Amino acid sequence: MQKEVMKRTGFARLLFTLVNSVKGLTFLLRKEEAFQLELALSVVLIPAAVLIGPSQLEISLMVAATLFVLIVETLNTAVEAAIDRIGSEYHELSGLAKDLGSLAVTLSLILWLVIWTPIVWTQLTK
Q1: Which residue among the candidates 73, 80, 89, 92 is catalytic per the annotation?
Q2: SS (H, E, C) 26-90
Q3: What does pTM read for this prediction?
Q4: Selecting from 1.10.287.3610, 1.20.1090.10, 3.40.190.10, 1.10.3470.10, what CATH number does the domain 32-124 have?
């Protein structure tokens, strides 16, 4: 017999989502060194984007690229947690999943560089 699950709707759903998001952020802040470093850089880089960016579009791109790194790092940690939940023994597909998550973070950092470098360079060479 299957247990009936109560669906949250409206404000209760929003509140439940917020509570779970805070739990996730708390975990990242306590346990994930890469996220901690990227968040610390974001705290500096986002205000810098507002000061450096010559237009609203470029500021938006710089902020979005910075937040994208945090998003991808969060998803990478989720993949790692799910793989670790499955088991601690080595499996080729588990290793591949973790490697692909790491690649996603690396690609997000490359995207960050592709967006930030020409904007900062242009501002510095004016």
Answers
A1: 73
A2: HHHHHHCHHHHHHHHHHHHHHHHHHHHCCCHHHHHHHHHHHHHHHHHHHHHHHHHHHHHHHCCCC
A3: 0.90
A4: 1.10.287.3610
